[in-house]
Design a protein that fits this description.
The complex is a heterodimer of chains A (230) and B (284). With 230 residues, chain A is mostly helical. Chain A contains ten helices and no strands. In chain A, helix 3 runs antiparallel to helix 7 and helix 9 crosses helix 10. Chain A starts with a helix and ends with a helix. Chain B is an alpha/beta fold and 284 residues long. Chain B has ten helices and 13 strands. A six-stranded mixed β-sheet of chain B has the order 6-7-8-3-9-10, with helices on both faces. A four-stranded antiparallel β-sheet of chain B has the order 2-1-4-5, covered by helices on one side. In chain B, 37% of the residues are buried. Classes of the chains: A mainly alpha (230), B alpha/beta (284). At the A-B interface, helix 1 and helix 4 of A face helix 2 of B.
Chain lengths: 230, 284
Protein backbone atom coordinates (compact mmCIF):
# COMPACT_ATOMS: atom_id res chain seq x y z
CA UNK A 1 0.00 0.00 0.00
CA UNK A 2 2.76 2.45 1.00
CA UNK A 3 4.80 1.41 -2.04
CA UNK A 4 1.84 1.86 -4.38
CA UNK A 5 1.15 5.30 -2.93
CA UNK A 6 4.80 6.27 -3.37
CA UNK A 7 4.95 4.97 -6.97
CA UNK A 8 1.74 6.83 -7.85
CA UNK A 9 3.06 10.03 -6.33
CA UNK A 10 6.39 9.75 -8.16
CA UNK A 11 4.57 9.30 -11.48
CA UNK A 12 2.42 12.36 -10.77
CA UNK A 13 5.52 14.27 -9.61
CA UNK A 14 7.34 13.46 -12.88
CA UNK A 15 4.25 14.41 -14.87
CA UNK A 16 3.78 17.75 -13.09
CA UNK A 17 7.45 18.64 -13.57
CA UNK A 18 7.18 18.05 -17.30
CA UNK A 19 9.17 14.84 -17.62
CA UNK A 20 6.38 13.11 -19.54
CA UNK A 21 6.18 16.02 -21.99
CA UNK A 22 9.95 15.93 -22.49
CA UNK A 23 9.85 12.17 -23.15
CA UNK A 24 6.83 12.55 -25.49
CA UNK A 25 8.65 15.15 -27.60
CA UNK A 26 11.84 13.08 -27.73
CA UNK A 27 9.91 9.90 -28.55
CA UNK A 28 8.15 11.59 -31.47
CA UNK A 29 11.44 13.05 -32.71
CA UNK A 30 13.15 9.65 -32.54
CA UNK A 31 10.26 8.00 -34.43
CA UNK A 32 10.39 10.66 -37.16
CA UNK A 33 14.16 10.18 -37.52
CA UNK A 34 13.81 6.39 -37.74
CA UNK A 35 11.01 6.61 -40.30
CA UNK A 36 13.13 8.88 -42.51
CA UNK A 37 16.13 6.54 -42.52
CA UNK A 38 16.77 3.90 -45.22
CA UNK A 39 15.66 0.38 -44.12
CA UNK A 40 19.21 -0.89 -43.70
CA UNK A 41 20.03 1.80 -41.17
CA UNK A 42 16.90 1.53 -39.03
CA UNK A 43 18.07 -1.29 -36.75
CA UNK A 44 21.53 0.14 -35.92
CA UNK A 45 20.02 3.60 -35.49
CA UNK A 46 17.35 2.17 -33.19
CA UNK A 47 20.02 0.54 -31.03
CA UNK A 48 21.86 3.84 -30.67
CA UNK A 49 18.66 5.80 -30.03
CA UNK A 50 17.47 3.37 -27.35
CA UNK A 51 20.91 3.35 -25.81
CA UNK A 52 20.78 7.15 -25.65
CA UNK A 53 17.13 7.23 -24.56
CA UNK A 54 17.29 4.58 -21.87
CA UNK A 55 20.83 5.05 -20.61
CA UNK A 56 21.88 8.66 -21.07
CA UNK A 57 18.52 10.34 -20.56
CA UNK A 58 17.54 8.05 -17.70
CA UNK A 59 20.83 8.65 -16.00
CA UNK A 60 20.37 12.43 -16.10
CA UNK A 61 16.63 12.61 -15.53
CA UNK A 62 16.51 10.45 -12.41
CA UNK A 63 19.15 12.67 -10.84
CA UNK A 64 17.15 15.73 -11.78
CA UNK A 65 14.07 14.24 -10.08
CA UNK A 66 15.96 13.53 -6.85
CA UNK A 67 17.41 17.05 -6.85
CA UNK A 68 14.00 18.60 -7.52
CA UNK A 69 12.71 16.70 -4.50
CA UNK A 70 15.67 17.88 -2.47
CA UNK A 71 14.95 21.47 -3.49
CA UNK A 72 11.51 21.06 -1.91
CA UNK A 73 12.95 19.30 1.19
CA UNK A 74 10.68 16.34 0.55
CA UNK A 75 12.87 13.41 1.59
CA UNK A 76 12.90 14.36 5.28
CA UNK A 77 9.15 14.67 5.43
CA UNK A 78 8.78 11.25 3.81
CA UNK A 79 11.20 9.57 6.21
CA UNK A 80 9.29 10.66 9.32
CA UNK A 81 6.27 8.67 8.07
CA UNK A 82 6.12 4.85 8.10
CA UNK A 83 7.53 4.86 4.52
CA UNK A 84 10.75 2.84 4.48
CA UNK A 85 13.89 3.67 2.51
CA UNK A 86 13.59 0.63 0.22
CA UNK A 87 9.99 1.62 -0.58
CA UNK A 88 11.12 5.16 -1.39
CA UNK A 89 13.84 3.86 -3.73
CA UNK A 90 11.61 1.24 -5.37
CA UNK A 91 9.07 3.97 -6.11
CA UNK A 92 11.75 5.98 -7.90
CA UNK A 93 12.90 2.93 -9.85
CA UNK A 94 9.42 1.65 -10.83
CA UNK A 95 8.14 5.07 -11.87
CA UNK A 96 11.22 5.71 -13.96
CA UNK A 97 11.08 2.23 -15.47
CA UNK A 98 7.53 2.93 -16.62
CA UNK A 99 8.53 6.23 -18.23
CA UNK A 100 11.64 4.91 -19.91
CA UNK A 101 10.26 1.58 -21.11
CA UNK A 102 7.04 3.16 -22.43
CA UNK A 103 9.15 5.59 -24.43
CA UNK A 104 11.39 2.77 -25.73
CA UNK A 105 8.49 0.61 -26.87
CA UNK A 106 6.69 3.50 -28.50
CA UNK A 107 9.86 4.18 -30.48
CA UNK A 108 10.01 0.50 -31.49
CA UNK A 109 6.36 0.43 -32.49
CA UNK A 110 6.66 3.73 -34.35
CA UNK A 111 9.61 2.41 -36.31
CA UNK A 112 7.85 -0.94 -37.02
CA UNK A 113 10.72 -2.87 -35.49
CA UNK A 114 10.39 -6.40 -34.18
CA UNK A 115 12.05 -9.81 -34.38
CA UNK A 116 12.45 -13.26 -32.92
CA UNK A 117 14.92 -12.20 -30.23
CA UNK A 118 12.38 -9.85 -28.66
CA UNK A 119 12.63 -11.50 -25.20
CA UNK A 120 16.38 -10.80 -25.02
CA UNK A 121 15.74 -7.27 -26.20
CA UNK A 122 13.00 -6.61 -23.62
CA UNK A 123 15.16 -8.02 -20.83
CA UNK A 124 18.04 -5.81 -21.99
CA UNK A 125 15.85 -2.71 -22.12
CA UNK A 126 14.39 -3.29 -18.64
CA UNK A 127 17.71 -4.17 -17.00
CA UNK A 128 19.46 -1.25 -18.69
CA UNK A 129 16.81 1.14 -17.43
CA UNK A 130 17.18 -0.25 -13.91
CA UNK A 131 20.95 -0.03 -13.98
CA UNK A 132 21.15 3.51 -15.29
CA UNK A 133 18.42 4.65 -12.94
CA UNK A 134 20.48 3.19 -10.09
CA UNK A 135 23.64 4.87 -11.45
CA UNK A 136 21.76 8.17 -11.42
CA UNK A 137 20.53 7.57 -7.87
CA UNK A 138 24.02 6.70 -6.61
CA UNK A 139 25.39 10.02 -7.83
CA UNK A 140 22.31 12.05 -6.91
CA UNK A 141 22.37 10.80 -3.30
CA UNK A 142 25.17 13.12 -2.30
CA UNK A 143 24.85 15.91 -4.88
CA UNK A 144 23.75 19.21 -3.38
CA UNK A 145 23.01 21.11 -6.60
CA UNK A 146 21.99 20.31 -10.17
CA UNK A 147 25.37 21.53 -11.48
CA UNK A 148 27.21 19.37 -8.99
CA UNK A 149 25.21 16.35 -10.15
CA UNK A 150 25.54 17.01 -13.87
CA UNK A 151 29.31 17.46 -13.73
CA UNK A 152 29.74 14.14 -11.93
CA UNK A 153 27.06 12.38 -13.99
CA UNK A 154 28.52 13.62 -17.25
CA UNK A 155 31.99 12.35 -16.34
CA UNK A 156 30.78 8.94 -15.27
CA UNK A 157 28.24 8.77 -18.11
CA UNK A 158 30.94 9.36 -20.71
CA UNK A 159 33.28 6.88 -19.05
CA UNK A 160 30.81 4.01 -18.89
CA UNK A 161 29.65 4.72 -22.45
CA UNK A 162 33.09 3.91 -23.90
CA UNK A 163 31.93 0.50 -25.27
CA UNK A 164 29.98 2.50 -27.87
CA UNK A 165 33.32 2.56 -29.74
CA UNK A 166 33.22 -1.24 -29.99
CA UNK A 167 29.62 -1.14 -31.21
CA UNK A 168 30.62 1.39 -33.91
CA UNK A 169 33.63 -0.90 -34.74
CA UNK A 170 36.07 1.94 -34.06
CA UNK A 171 37.98 0.41 -31.15
CA UNK A 172 37.57 -2.68 -28.99
CA UNK A 173 39.22 -4.16 -25.92
CA UNK A 174 38.26 -7.04 -23.59
CA UNK A 175 38.07 -4.48 -20.76
CA UNK A 176 34.83 -3.22 -22.29
CA UNK A 177 33.17 -6.47 -21.16
CA UNK A 178 33.41 -5.22 -17.59
CA UNK A 179 31.26 -2.21 -18.49
CA UNK A 180 27.47 -2.61 -18.19
CA UNK A 181 27.12 -0.69 -21.45
CA UNK A 182 28.72 -3.54 -23.37
CA UNK A 183 25.95 -5.87 -22.24
CA UNK A 184 23.33 -3.20 -22.84
CA UNK A 185 24.50 -2.61 -26.42
CA UNK A 186 24.49 -6.35 -27.17
CA UNK A 187 20.95 -6.93 -25.89
CA UNK A 188 19.54 -3.75 -27.46
CA UNK A 189 21.12 -4.81 -30.75
CA UNK A 190 19.86 -8.44 -30.83
CA UNK A 191 17.10 -7.51 -33.26
CA UNK A 192 19.66 -6.28 -35.79
CA UNK A 193 22.69 -8.52 -35.26
CA UNK A 194 23.21 -12.25 -34.70
CA UNK A 195 24.92 -12.77 -31.34
CA UNK A 196 25.92 -16.17 -29.96
CA UNK A 197 23.96 -17.58 -27.03
CA UNK A 198 27.13 -17.19 -24.95
CA UNK A 199 27.27 -13.47 -25.70
CA UNK A 200 23.62 -13.07 -24.78
CA UNK A 201 23.98 -15.08 -21.57
CA UNK A 202 27.07 -13.11 -20.66
CA UNK A 203 25.15 -9.88 -21.17
CA UNK A 204 22.30 -11.04 -18.95
CA UNK A 205 24.73 -12.11 -16.21
CA UNK A 206 26.68 -8.85 -16.48
CA UNK A 207 23.54 -6.73 -16.14
CA UNK A 208 22.30 -8.81 -13.19
CA UNK A 209 25.63 -8.45 -11.38
CA UNK A 210 25.69 -4.69 -12.00
CA UNK A 211 22.08 -4.48 -10.82
CA UNK A 212 22.83 -6.14 -7.48
CA UNK A 213 25.99 -4.11 -6.89
CA UNK A 214 24.28 -0.82 -7.70
CA UNK A 215 21.16 -1.70 -5.65
CA UNK A 216 23.28 -2.19 -2.53
CA UNK A 217 25.32 0.92 -3.24
CA UNK A 218 22.20 3.04 -3.83
CA UNK A 219 20.61 1.88 -0.58
CA UNK A 220 23.79 2.51 1.38
CA UNK A 221 24.33 5.99 -0.13
CA UNK A 222 20.73 7.08 0.43
CA UNK A 223 20.73 5.73 3.97
CA UNK A 224 23.87 7.71 4.75
CA UNK A 225 23.29 10.95 2.84
CA UNK A 226 19.50 11.28 2.53
CA UNK A 227 17.81 9.20 5.23
CA UNK A 228 20.34 10.03 7.96
CA UNK A 229 22.23 13.12 6.71
CA UNK A 230 24.84 14.26 9.19
CA UNK B 1 7.50 9.50 27.12
CA UNK B 2 11.05 10.68 26.27
CA UNK B 3 14.19 10.00 28.32
CA UNK B 4 17.55 11.42 27.24
CA UNK B 5 20.81 10.82 29.10
CA UNK B 6 24.21 12.29 28.31
CA UNK B 7 23.41 12.98 24.66
CA UNK B 8 26.35 14.01 22.48
CA UNK B 9 26.32 14.63 18.74
CA UNK B 10 28.78 15.92 16.15
CA UNK B 11 28.02 16.59 12.48
CA UNK B 12 30.10 14.68 9.92
CA UNK B 13 33.78 14.53 10.73
CA UNK B 14 33.52 17.65 12.90
CA UNK B 15 35.56 17.17 16.05
CA UNK B 16 33.45 19.81 17.83
CA UNK B 17 30.26 18.41 19.41
CA UNK B 18 27.06 20.24 18.46
CA UNK B 19 25.30 18.66 21.46
CA UNK B 20 27.34 18.29 24.63
CA UNK B 21 25.87 16.01 27.24
CA UNK B 22 22.14 16.76 27.20
CA UNK B 23 19.97 15.28 29.95
CA UNK B 24 16.21 15.72 30.07
CA UNK B 25 12.92 13.88 30.11
CA UNK B 26 9.50 14.70 28.67
CA UNK B 27 6.40 13.44 30.48
CA UNK B 28 3.34 12.05 28.73
CA UNK B 29 0.78 14.77 28.01
CA UNK B 30 3.04 17.76 28.53
CA UNK B 31 4.21 20.48 26.15
CA UNK B 32 7.98 20.62 26.42
CA UNK B 33 9.87 23.47 24.80
CA UNK B 34 13.47 23.75 23.67
CA UNK B 35 14.30 27.42 23.85
CA UNK B 36 17.49 28.88 22.48
CA UNK B 37 19.05 31.09 19.82
CA UNK B 38 19.73 29.93 16.26
CA UNK B 39 22.46 27.30 16.13
CA UNK B 40 22.05 26.34 19.79
CA UNK B 41 21.25 22.69 18.98
CA UNK B 42 17.44 22.70 19.29
CA UNK B 43 16.68 21.34 15.83
CA UNK B 44 19.57 18.88 16.06
CA UNK B 45 18.08 17.50 19.29
CA UNK B 46 14.69 17.17 17.62
CA UNK B 47 16.20 15.44 14.59
CA UNK B 48 17.74 12.86 16.92
CA UNK B 49 14.43 12.30 18.71
CA UNK B 50 12.65 11.62 15.40
CA UNK B 51 15.34 9.26 14.14
CA UNK B 52 16.83 11.39 11.35
CA UNK B 53 20.23 11.76 12.98
CA UNK B 54 21.35 8.42 14.33
CA UNK B 55 25.08 8.55 14.99
CA UNK B 56 24.75 10.13 18.42
CA UNK B 57 26.35 9.09 21.69
CA UNK B 58 24.37 8.61 24.88
CA UNK B 59 20.99 7.02 25.63
CA UNK B 60 17.74 8.14 24.01
CA UNK B 61 14.44 6.41 24.60
CA UNK B 62 11.16 7.51 23.06
CA UNK B 63 8.02 5.77 24.26
CA UNK B 64 10.17 3.04 25.78
CA UNK B 65 11.88 2.39 22.45
CA UNK B 66 15.63 2.72 21.99
CA UNK B 67 16.06 4.99 18.97
CA UNK B 68 18.74 2.72 17.54
CA UNK B 69 16.00 0.11 16.99
CA UNK B 70 13.51 2.26 15.11
CA UNK B 71 10.94 0.68 12.82
CA UNK B 72 7.98 1.92 10.80
CA UNK B 73 5.73 1.29 13.84
CA UNK B 74 7.46 4.22 15.58
CA UNK B 75 6.45 6.58 12.78
CA UNK B 76 2.81 5.48 12.98
CA UNK B 77 2.49 7.33 16.28
CA UNK B 78 4.54 10.51 15.81
CA UNK B 79 3.86 13.68 13.87
CA UNK B 80 6.57 16.09 12.73
CA UNK B 81 6.42 19.62 11.37
CA UNK B 82 9.85 20.84 10.31
CA UNK B 83 10.84 24.49 10.46
CA UNK B 84 11.19 24.64 6.67
CA UNK B 85 7.86 23.55 5.21
CA UNK B 86 8.61 20.55 3.00
CA UNK B 87 5.69 20.07 0.68
CA UNK B 88 5.09 19.11 -2.95
CA UNK B 89 5.00 22.58 -4.48
CA UNK B 90 3.28 21.56 -7.73
CA UNK B 91 0.49 19.80 -5.82
CA UNK B 92 -2.49 21.34 -4.07
CA UNK B 93 -2.84 21.47 -0.29
CA UNK B 94 -5.42 18.69 -0.38
CA UNK B 95 -3.30 16.52 -2.71
CA UNK B 96 -0.36 16.89 -0.32
CA UNK B 97 -2.41 15.79 2.68
CA UNK B 98 -4.14 12.95 0.80
CA UNK B 99 -0.77 11.61 -0.32
CA UNK B 100 0.85 11.58 3.12
CA UNK B 101 -2.29 10.12 4.72
CA UNK B 102 -1.86 6.95 2.64
CA UNK B 103 1.29 5.96 4.54
CA UNK B 104 -0.48 5.32 7.84
CA UNK B 105 -2.21 2.08 8.77
CA UNK B 106 -4.63 3.81 11.13
CA UNK B 107 -7.47 5.97 9.83
CA UNK B 108 -6.19 9.45 9.06
CA UNK B 109 -7.89 12.63 10.19
CA UNK B 110 -10.09 14.29 7.60
CA UNK B 111 -7.74 16.57 5.59
CA UNK B 112 -10.50 19.08 4.84
CA UNK B 113 -11.31 19.43 8.55
CA UNK B 114 -7.63 19.98 9.32
CA UNK B 115 -7.39 22.64 6.61
CA UNK B 116 -10.50 24.34 7.97
CA UNK B 117 -9.02 24.34 11.48
CA UNK B 118 -6.03 26.40 10.29
CA UNK B 119 -8.11 28.62 8.01
CA UNK B 120 -6.98 27.06 4.74
CA UNK B 121 -10.27 25.56 3.57
CA UNK B 122 -10.52 28.10 0.73
CA UNK B 123 -7.01 27.17 -0.41
CA UNK B 124 -7.54 23.40 -0.37
CA UNK B 125 -7.32 23.19 -4.14
CA UNK B 126 -4.56 25.76 -4.57
CA UNK B 127 -1.05 24.63 -5.46
CA UNK B 128 1.46 25.00 -2.64
CA UNK B 129 3.75 27.01 -4.95
CA UNK B 130 1.14 29.79 -4.73
CA UNK B 131 1.12 29.72 -0.89
CA UNK B 132 2.69 32.38 1.32
CA UNK B 133 5.19 31.25 3.97
CA UNK B 134 2.54 31.46 6.67
CA UNK B 135 0.16 29.28 4.65
CA UNK B 136 2.88 26.68 4.15
CA UNK B 137 3.57 26.64 7.89
CA UNK B 138 -0.11 26.00 8.58
CA UNK B 139 -0.32 23.27 5.95
CA UNK B 140 2.83 21.71 7.39
CA UNK B 141 1.12 21.64 10.77
CA UNK B 142 -1.95 19.94 9.26
CA UNK B 143 0.28 17.25 7.79
CA UNK B 144 1.86 16.55 11.16
CA UNK B 145 -1.60 15.82 12.61
CA UNK B 146 -2.83 13.47 9.86
CA UNK B 147 -2.18 10.26 11.81
CA UNK B 148 -3.52 11.44 15.20
CA UNK B 149 0.01 11.38 16.65
CA UNK B 150 0.47 10.64 20.33
CA UNK B 151 3.79 12.49 20.15
CA UNK B 152 4.10 15.68 18.15
CA UNK B 153 7.36 17.44 17.22
CA UNK B 154 7.01 21.05 16.10
CA UNK B 155 10.05 23.03 14.96
CA UNK B 156 9.37 26.80 15.12
CA UNK B 157 5.62 26.20 14.61
CA UNK B 158 4.68 29.89 14.58
CA UNK B 159 7.43 31.23 12.31
CA UNK B 160 6.00 33.48 9.61
CA UNK B 161 2.46 33.62 11.06
CA UNK B 162 0.48 36.83 11.38
CA UNK B 163 -0.98 37.65 14.85
CA UNK B 164 -4.41 36.20 14.05
CA UNK B 165 -3.02 32.90 12.78
CA UNK B 166 -0.47 32.86 15.58
CA UNK B 167 -3.30 32.77 18.13
CA UNK B 168 -5.15 30.17 16.09
CA UNK B 169 -2.04 27.99 15.97
CA UNK B 170 -1.46 28.33 19.71
CA UNK B 171 -5.06 27.27 20.36
CA UNK B 172 -4.66 24.24 18.09
CA UNK B 173 -1.45 23.17 19.83
CA UNK B 174 -3.13 23.49 23.23
CA UNK B 175 -6.07 21.48 21.85
CA UNK B 176 -3.64 18.64 21.04
CA UNK B 177 -2.47 18.72 24.65
CA UNK B 178 -6.04 18.43 25.92
CA UNK B 179 -6.39 15.29 23.78
CA UNK B 180 -3.65 13.81 25.97
CA UNK B 181 -0.88 14.09 23.38
CA UNK B 182 2.72 14.94 24.16
CA UNK B 183 4.25 17.86 22.28
CA UNK B 184 7.89 18.90 21.83
CA UNK B 185 8.39 22.40 20.51
CA UNK B 186 11.64 24.03 19.47
CA UNK B 187 11.49 27.80 19.32
CA UNK B 188 13.44 30.97 19.78
CA UNK B 189 10.16 32.83 20.33
CA UNK B 190 9.80 33.68 24.00
CA UNK B 191 6.07 34.34 23.69
CA UNK B 192 5.44 30.85 22.25
CA UNK B 193 7.46 29.20 25.01
CA UNK B 194 5.74 31.26 27.68
CA UNK B 195 2.22 30.73 26.38
CA UNK B 196 2.35 27.08 25.39
CA UNK B 197 4.99 25.18 27.31
CA UNK B 198 4.51 23.36 30.61
CA UNK B 199 8.29 23.21 30.92
CA UNK B 200 11.12 24.73 28.91
CA UNK B 201 14.75 23.73 28.50
CA UNK B 202 17.21 26.56 27.78
CA UNK B 203 19.74 25.39 25.20
CA UNK B 204 22.86 27.35 24.34
CA UNK B 205 25.95 25.99 22.54
CA UNK B 206 24.64 22.43 22.72
CA UNK B 207 24.11 22.41 26.47
CA UNK B 208 20.95 22.57 28.57
CA UNK B 209 21.49 25.14 31.27
CA UNK B 210 18.09 24.96 32.96
CA UNK B 211 14.75 23.15 32.81
CA UNK B 212 11.63 24.42 34.58
CA UNK B 213 8.12 25.74 34.02
CA UNK B 214 7.96 29.26 32.55
CA UNK B 215 5.76 30.42 35.46
CA UNK B 216 8.15 29.17 38.14
CA UNK B 217 11.12 30.68 36.34
CA UNK B 218 9.47 34.06 36.06
CA UNK B 219 8.55 34.03 39.75
CA UNK B 220 11.94 32.77 40.96
CA UNK B 221 13.81 35.44 39.02
CA UNK B 222 11.35 38.28 39.64
CA UNK B 223 11.09 40.73 42.56
CA UNK B 224 8.19 40.70 45.01
CA UNK B 225 7.01 44.21 44.21
CA UNK B 226 4.01 45.77 42.53
CA UNK B 227 4.49 48.80 40.30
CA UNK B 228 1.59 51.23 40.22
CA UNK B 229 1.01 54.15 37.87
CA UNK B 230 -1.65 56.62 39.01
CA UNK B 231 -2.80 60.20 38.44
CA UNK B 232 -2.37 62.80 41.11
CA UNK B 233 -3.95 65.91 39.70
CA UNK B 234 -2.45 66.36 36.24
CA UNK B 235 0.78 64.49 36.90
CA UNK B 236 1.51 60.80 36.40
CA UNK B 237 2.96 59.19 39.53
CA UNK B 238 4.67 55.79 39.87
CA UNK B 239 5.24 53.83 43.03
CA UNK B 240 6.80 50.42 43.78
CA UNK B 241 5.51 48.63 46.84
CA UNK B 242 6.63 45.35 48.39
CA UNK B 243 4.14 42.51 48.02
CA UNK B 244 4.72 41.40 51.60
CA UNK B 245 1.50 42.00 53.57
CA UNK B 246 0.25 44.13 50.69
CA UNK B 247 -3.32 44.14 52.03
CA UNK B 248 -2.23 46.02 55.14
CA UNK B 249 0.31 48.31 53.47
CA UNK B 250 -0.81 51.90 54.19
CA UNK B 251 0.77 53.44 51.07
CA UNK B 252 -0.86 50.83 48.84
CA UNK B 253 -4.23 51.21 50.55
CA UNK B 254 -3.99 54.99 50.23
CA UNK B 255 -3.43 54.81 46.46
CA UNK B 256 -6.17 52.23 46.06
CA UNK B 257 -8.68 54.29 47.99
CA UNK B 258 -7.79 57.82 46.93
CA UNK B 259 -6.02 57.89 43.56
CA UNK B 260 -6.93 57.26 39.94
CA UNK B 261 -4.91 54.13 39.09
CA UNK B 262 -3.89 53.68 35.44
CA UNK B 263 -1.74 50.51 35.62
CA UNK B 264 -0.76 48.00 38.27
CA UNK B 265 1.72 45.16 37.69
CA UNK B 266 3.53 42.56 39.73
CA UNK B 267 7.26 42.59 39.01
CA UNK B 268 7.93 38.99 37.94
CA UNK B 269 10.76 38.54 35.44
CA UNK B 270 10.04 37.98 31.77
CA UNK B 271 11.15 34.65 30.37
CA UNK B 272 13.63 36.53 28.21
CA UNK B 273 15.14 38.16 31.32
CA UNK B 274 15.55 34.73 32.86
CA UNK B 275 17.12 33.37 29.68
CA UNK B 276 19.64 36.21 29.42
CA UNK B 277 20.43 36.03 33.13
CA UNK B 278 20.89 32.25 33.10
CA UNK B 279 22.74 31.77 29.83
CA UNK B 280 24.39 35.14 29.32
CA UNK B 281 23.02 35.11 25.76
CA UNK B 282 20.13 36.74 23.94
CA UNK B 283 17.65 34.75 21.88
CA UNK B 284 18.34 36.54 18.57
Amino acid sequence: MRLLAAVGQDIRFQFRHGFYYAYAVLTILYIIVLRLLPDAMVHPALTLILFTDICALGFFFVGAIVLLERGQNLAQSLFVTPLRLHEYLLAKIFSFLLLSITSAFLIMLGAFVGGQDLIWFIFGAIMSTLIYTLFGLVFAARARHVNDYFVKALGVGLLISLPIFAYLRLFDTPIFYVFPTRATLILLDVLATDYTILEKLFSVASLLIWFFILSGLTYQRFDKHVRHPA
Amino acid sequence: MIQVNDLHFAYGSNSHDTLRGLNFHVDTGEIFGFLGPSGAGKSTTQKILIGILNNYRGAVQVNGLNLQQLNSEFYESIGVAFETPNLYSKFTALENLDFFAQFYSSEARNPLELLAAVGLEEAAKTRVSDFSKGMKVRLNFCRSLLNNPKLLFLDEPTAGLDPVNLRKMEALILAEKTRGNTICITTHDMHVADTLCDRVAFIVDGEVSLIDSPRDLKLQHGERFVDIEYREGDSLQTKSISMEKLGTNDAFQNILNNQYIETIHSREASLEDVFVKTTGRSLQ
